[in-house]
């Protein structure tokens, strides 16, 4: 049966938000690209996205027992992508700040702020961000993505299906604190992270920790960085870097730069930060020092600027995530195809060029 899918349009350029970069730069781990459509499940719907150079197109598929509107989907996207922040203006200021540290030899190369446009910090659900970054400890993006998928499949709620792929919500603290969760997580390959996830979920659901609640986690958006950071450090599996990732990517602390040895090396190599090149571990004072160092350079959006530098240092964001075996129609027959976006290609040239197993209708 042919299904008519209604798409709405947001007039925003690819330089303001580039889906193939911002959804692959290590902030979020559950977006999929199936037949050139980006998809992601929240509690009551599947969010669907495409883009060309000048527009972002969105649609949704509601949970099987749910009614909803495209206004709700737009509201989610506006908040999630923080679309009120004008990215091009920030890029120009970051490029100018960065130029002060460029040597004559480096000046011959293109600026990372020219090469990796459209990367912005996402405003994620704090609970999902917390659990996702507990999974990130000593891990790579491909494995983190698999873990997040398994969390949803085995502990979340079924939302709906699209292009032969089933979507589930991210599990709640209640769902992850049930008896047997830790052992099941170990069976699924979470290793020592299974204990951290289960213990953290228990803290959010136990009367023994009255101050650790989802409501108080979300309230950290309005608190000072130091308070939010200390709140997060109470939780199992959360160290200084993970806490800073959550502060930046879910709690509106946009000047925070999460520090690891990779970022430390960028500071030394590209910004003349004085330190040891062969350093293997960072203490609390060094975390604070490097964060302040980057904030002095890039200002209140230092965490945003660092995300661009981090992506540029990786160079290739085509890191194995967001690749899905999907059903596609070829000459009238369904076949299996491995779908993989290349980071330096536009996800969708124009909406008319996208081939789907449904009829697309675009409404402004």
TrEMBL record:
<dbReference type="GO" id="GO:0006289">
    <property type="term" value="P:nucleotide-excision repair"/>
</dbReference>
<keyword id="KW-0234">DNA repair</keyword>
<keyword id="KW-0326">Glycosidase</keyword>
<comment type="similarity">
    <text>Belongs to the type-1 OGG1 family.</text>
</comment>
<dbReference type="GO" id="GO:0140078">
    <property type="term" value="F:class I DNA-(apurinic or apyrimidinic site) endonuclease activity"/>
</dbReference>
<dbReference type="GO" id="GO:0005634">
    <property type="term" value="C:nucleus"/>
</dbReference>
<dbReference type="GO" id="GO:0006285">
    <property type="term" value="P:base-excision repair, AP site formation"/>
</dbReference>
<keyword id="KW-0456">Lyase</keyword>
<dbReference type="Pfam" id="PF00730">
    <property type="entry name" value="HhH-GPD"/>
</dbReference>
<dbReference type="InterPro" id="IPR003265">
    <property type="entry name" value="HhH-GPD_domain"/>
</dbReference>
<dbReference type="InterPro" id="IPR052054">
    <property type="entry name" value="Oxidative_DNA_repair_enzyme"/>
</dbReference>
<dbReference type="InterPro" id="IPR023170">
    <property type="entry name" value="HhH_base_excis_C"/>
</dbReference>
<keyword id="KW-0227">DNA damage</keyword>
<feature type="domain" description="HhH-GPD">
    <location>
        <begin position="135"/>
        <end position="314"/>
    </location>
</feature>
<protein>
    <recommendedName>
        <fullName>N-glycosylase/DNA lyase</fullName>
        <ecNumber>4.2.99.18</ecNumber>
    </recommendedName>
</protein>
<dbReference type="GO" id="GO:0034039">
    <property type="term" value="F:8-oxo-7,8-dihydroguanine DNA N-glycosylase activity"/>
</dbReference>
<dbReference type="Pfam" id="PF07934">
    <property type="entry name" value="OGG_N"/>
</dbReference>
<keyword id="KW-0539">Nucleus</keyword>
<comment type="function">
    <text>DNA repair enzyme that incises DNA at 8-oxoG residues. Excises 7,8-dihydro-8-oxoguanine and 2,6-diamino-4-hydroxy-5-N-methylformamidopyrimidine (FAPY) from damaged DNA. Has a beta-lyase activity that nicks DNA 3' to the lesion.</text>
</comment>
<keyword id="KW-0511">Multifunctional enzyme</keyword>
<dbReference type="InterPro" id="IPR012904">
    <property type="entry name" value="OGG_N"/>
</dbReference>
<keyword id="KW-0378">Hydrolase</keyword>
<dbReference type="GO" id="GO:0003684">
    <property type="term" value="F:damaged DNA binding"/>
</dbReference>
<dbReference type="InterPro" id="IPR011257">
    <property type="entry name" value="DNA_glycosylase"/>
</dbReference>
């Amino acid at each position: 049966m042919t299904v008519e899918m209604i798409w709405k349009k947001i007039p925003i350029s690819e330089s303001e938000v580039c889906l193939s970069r911002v959804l692959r730069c290590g902030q979020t781990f559950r977006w999929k690209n199936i037949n050139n459509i980006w998809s992601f499940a929240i509690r009551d719907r599947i969010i669907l996205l495409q883009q060309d150079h000048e527009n972002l197109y969105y649609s949704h598929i509601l949970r099987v027992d749910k009614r909803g509107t495209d206004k709700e989907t737009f509201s989610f996207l506006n908040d999630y992508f923080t679309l009120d922040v004008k990215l091009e203006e920030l890029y120009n200021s970051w490029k100018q700040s960065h130029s002060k540290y460029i040597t004559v030899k480096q000046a011959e190369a293109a600026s990372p702020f020219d090469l990796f446009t459209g990367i912005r910090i996402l405003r994620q659900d704090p609970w999902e961000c917390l659990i996702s970054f507990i999974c990130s400890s000593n891990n790579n993006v491909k494995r983190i993505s698999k873990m997040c998928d398994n969390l949803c499949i085995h502990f979340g709620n079924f939302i709906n299906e699209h292009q032969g792929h089933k979507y589930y919500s991210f599990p709640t603290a209640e769902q992850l604190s049930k008896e047997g969760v830790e052992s099941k997580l170990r069976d699924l390959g979470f290793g020592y992270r299974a204990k951290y996830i289960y213990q953290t979920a228990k803290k959010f659901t136990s009367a023994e920790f009255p101050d650790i609640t989802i409501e108080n986690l979300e309230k950290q958006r309005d608190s000072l960085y130091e308070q939010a950071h200390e709140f997060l450090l109470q939780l199992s599996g959360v160290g200084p870097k993970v806490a800073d990732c959550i502060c930046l990517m879910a709690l509106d602390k946009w000047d925070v730069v999460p520090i690891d040895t990779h970022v430390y090396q960028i500071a030394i190599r590209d910004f003349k930060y004085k330190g040891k090149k062969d350093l293997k571990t960072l203490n609390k004072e060094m975390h604070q020092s490097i964060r302040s160092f980057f904030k002095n350079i890039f200002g209140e959006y230092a965490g945003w600027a660092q995300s661009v530098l981090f992506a540029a240092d990786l160079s290739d964001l085509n890191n194995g995530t967001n690749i899905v075996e999907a059903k596609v129609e070829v000459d009238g027959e369904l076949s299996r195809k491995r779908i993989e976006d290349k980071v330096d290609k536009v996800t969708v040239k124009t909406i008319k060029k996208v081939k789907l197993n449904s009829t697309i209708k675009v409404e402004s």
